[in-house]
Recover the amino acids of this structure.
């Protein structure tokens, strides 16, 4: 994330911070190797304070692509995947550089490395663009990780909100998604209470609370 006390939220697209980015990436790789985690979120960062987004867009894109190619080369030595996550600039972070899956897909195409993928957080995607079914279908080949939270409260998937998660989970299954779904939400209560939605979802699918099939028992 860079120097959060100084207002940074990632470094990969921030001009002039290339050396700090590479140092932080190498540290992240050491941590990931130690815990056996094969994926690293490569945070783009914020548009610098006092600058106009449109005025610095070209320089930030150039910096981002340069750093991502460096990332891909480093991670390929570790058999790891780098992930790009668009973060909405309407609610969460007005200055974040990478805001939509369309932007992320365009960057990934320009970088052209197979070990860089899209980290699609459905909370951010819904706020910026909606059209989740078509976006999942369109960008499915690029997706390396999925994150979920209800909109607009960013709580559990079964909390009141805009998104129909049983439908979205079924769509992911029909598309052949076999990766993780990260619960990137703020529980309304404690963690165990907040996971009641998952037990209910398993039961609706005829599964035990550990995710195994009841019929197989």
């Amino acid at each position: 994330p860079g120097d959060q006390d100084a207002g940074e939220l990632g470094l990969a697209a921030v001009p002039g911070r290339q050396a700090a980015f590479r140092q932080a990436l190498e540290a992240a790789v050491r941590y990931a190797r130690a815990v056996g985690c094969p994926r690293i979120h490569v945070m783009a960062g914020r548009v610098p304070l006092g600058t106009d987004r449109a005025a610095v867009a070209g320089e930030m894109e150039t910096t981002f692509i340069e750093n991502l190619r460096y990332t891909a080369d480093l991670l390929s030595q570790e058999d790891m995947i780098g992930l790009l996550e668009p973060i909405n600039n309407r609610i969460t972070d007005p200055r974040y550089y990478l805001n939509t899956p369309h932007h992320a897909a365009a960057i990934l195409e320009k970088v052209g490395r197979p070990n860089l993928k899209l980290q699609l957080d459905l909370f951010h995607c819904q706020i910026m663009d909606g059209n989740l079914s078509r976006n999942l279908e369109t960008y499915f080949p690029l997706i390396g990780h999925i994150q979920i939270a209800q909109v607009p409260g960013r709580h559990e998937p079964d909390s009141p909100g805009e998104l129909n998660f049983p439908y979205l989970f079924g769509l992911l299954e029909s598309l052949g998604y076999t990766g993780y779904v990260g619960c990137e939400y703020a529980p309304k209560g404690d963690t165990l209470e907040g996971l009641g939605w998952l037990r209910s979802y398993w039961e609706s699918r005829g599964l035990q609370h550990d995710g195994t099939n009841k019929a197989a028992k």
